[in-house]
Amino acid sequence: MHSIATTCAALGEIASRLATQPAIGLDTEFLRERTYRAQLCLLQVSDTGQAACIDPIAVPDLSALAPVLGDPRVVKVLHASRQDLEVLLPTAGMVRPVFDTQIAAALAGEAAQIGYGELVRRLLGHELPKAHTRTDWSRRPLSPEQIEYALDDVRHLLPLRQALTERLERLGRLDWLAEELSTLDDASSLGVRPEDAWRRLKGLAGLDPGRERLARLLGAWRERRAMERDRPRGWILEDAVLREIVLRVPRTPEALGAVPDMPPGLVKHCAAQLLECVGEADIPDPPPPAPTRARPDPLKTALVRKLGAISQAVAIELGLSPEVLVTRRELEQLADERRDVPVLRGWRRQVIGERLLAAI
After folding, report:
1. Whether 240 contacts 204, CB under 8 Å
2. What CATH class is the domain 194-281?
3. Which terminal residue of the chain, N or C, has fewer Cβ atoms less than 10 Å from its own Cβ?
């Protein structure tokens, strides 16, 4: 394989070679600082013998790769794959099936979010250079050192997969891995639906129904505008300003302009759209009191602490990081009598979920 493919012919050669392999390594380099959609700057691939870079700036049409990236007979091995899958979806289609070495490592007892370099060091004994971690991958030409650094990101993926598979087989956890990896097979999970964008906002707990509707409407408006203009959502409207609109419920352009840190240009050009969201939320005038930070309920706090102690004990028993089993947020949801939480599904329910329910 070429060390870097910059022509359609070279891309075709790489695609043909990869199509004959049982498994391939895959990684991407992309930029997202100034756009809504990530800009794919480099694609790295490997098989058991070789590794290569593909330059999507020189060869923007990656459709030659789509058949192999979607071929169920060829396993695609990535590390912390979700963003890579999201970036590749528009240009090369859905990547499947995926083996994610970070997910596998967490189930094998490594840290929950272990980095690729650290995993290579721990499992394979190789020390990877860190010289180009802050490279602007959109700039051309790429130096031989940059290309070598990028190739290192895929050279060790197949040996990592083998080592992790062997360890998980010894532990009897291959079923757990299959269940975790199945969540990567859903294209709808790779983007953000505008209607769900508000769920990413912090500091909006305990909203009354009207304000919750307003948060949903404003989040969707911002997401659509960011998509249309291909700009980061924070450039359209910062989280803190959106949150203030939800809490203050302004009903006039003047009131909107008085929201702290509200950009005057946004009021000038978008006041009508933002106030339409306020109207559609159907909040009484005056609105109900804004939520205040409630005092912690001592009974709930004690229950969450008790559930946390159980999760720590089970994690020690299994040699896992506790957050691989259950997050603190899930423990709080269980204490609030919620039962639609991941810890009560699949392998987690058997391993820890039933014990948590029994404790409640």
Report:
1. no
2. mainly alpha
3. C
